[in-house]
Specification:
2 copies of one chain form a homodimer. By secondary structure, the first copy, chain A, is mostly helical. Chain A contains 7 helices and 4 strands. Chain A has a single domain (about 5-150), classed as Arc Repressor Mutant, subunit A. Chain A has a two-stranded antiparallel sheet with strand order 2-3. Chain A is globular. In chain A, helix 1 (about 5-25) packs across helix 2, helix 1 (about 5-25) crosses helix 3 and helix 1 packs across helix 4. The longest helix of chain A has 19 residues, at about 5-25. At the A-B interface, strand 1, helix 1, helix 4, strand 4 and helix 5 of A face strand 1, helix 1, helix 4, strand 4 and helix 5 of B. Chain A binds a DNA duplex (30 and 30 nucleotides) through helix 3. Chains A, B: GO terms for molecular function: DNA binding; DNA-binding transcription factor activity. Chains A, B: This is Rrf2 family transcriptional regulator. Chains A, B: Keywords: DNA-binding. Chains A, B: It comes from Rubrobacter marinus.
DNA sequence: TCACCTCTCTACTGGTTCGGTAGGCAATAC
DNA sequence: GTATTGCCTACCGAACCAGTAGAGAGGTGA
């Protein structure tokens, strides 16, 4: 259950675009975003292109060009961004959780994967880019982070 | 956010061992487990060896040998099995969620990853191998699967 | 003691993915 | 027309993944 560099970079870049959107400054240049978040520039261009193809981002070329969000930051969830660059949020050996076949004592595993995906969604589909910019997460998510136990790795 | 073949196989094999434990039949041979779950035998031996090294499984060699759970099935969670074969449940670009540094508008991402990990844990640390065998998941997890929306992929 | 069975361990391999780079092309502004 | 910026495809090395191989060690039974 790894979060790839690609997904992480995409979210960081998107958060920069969200801030620019909220603050009303114009298009952000790739150079600026990459520098602000410490992302290799060419790699990030690649990633932002994916976001553009999925309709999350708009662009303009030329001297006064750059990138900006296609819709308000509050309408883009983190799940939207991740799906744009990585495909489905959760899958089992390359298949959708509901597509995997289990036999005998393992039968309930399918439902477990469904539950896993659902729990991922409750976080990633409720947090929006606007939440990142504002610095306040939705109550459900905030609640998960309150438990000190959540901050230790096992 | 992929579930690897290794983790999937580990859980399936473990569920077979759990059933044998609950039913009180003796050690299970690798051959039997592999056949029952359709797992390549040598690959599965490899995986079960990991489970053994982590103290989840005991073994005996020879004609009347086989594999069995080291502790009752109700005391082994799915998270235990996954961690034994894959390491940490969730990490961001190879690091623990709480170790990743974010700057500016991306700062809240760390808390998001913490929440993601916490939500994974609420599923994988509550379901035990005994639950799989009995065919009844804990209420919290069962609840997640009840929502029809959880069964569609986006 | 011998034969046979089953797990143990290390190494290997072929293929895919991942993170990142390169470079030419297309559009925009001045 | 020229400088600037994004667009797009291709490429590359390294790591990882799924699976295989095979010799060896510990058991059992005769």
């Amino acid at each position: 259950m790894q979060v790839s560099a690609r997904a992480d970079y995409a979210l960081r870049a998107a958060s920069e675009l969200a801030r620019a959107k909220v603050e009303g400054t114009g298009p952000l240049k790739g150079e600026r975003i990459a520098a602000a978040q410490g992302i290799p520039k060419k790699f990030m261009e690649n990633i932002l292109l994916d976001l553009k193809h999925h309709g999350l981002v708009r662009t303009q070329r030329g001297a006064s060009g750059g990138y900006w969000l296609a819709v308000p930051a509050a309408e883009i969830t983190l799940a939207d961004v991740i799906r744009a660059v990585e495909g489905p949020l959760a899958n089992v050996r390359g298949e959708w959780p509901e597509a995997v076949e289990y036999t005998g004592s393992a039968e309930k595993l399918r439902e477990v994967w469904i539950a896993v995906r659902a729990s991922l969604r409750t976080v990633l589909e409720t947090v929006t880019l606007a939440d990142l910019v504002e610095g306040s997460l939705p109550p459900v998510v905030e609640g998960l982070t309150r438990n000190p136990e959540a901050w230790v790795h096992h």
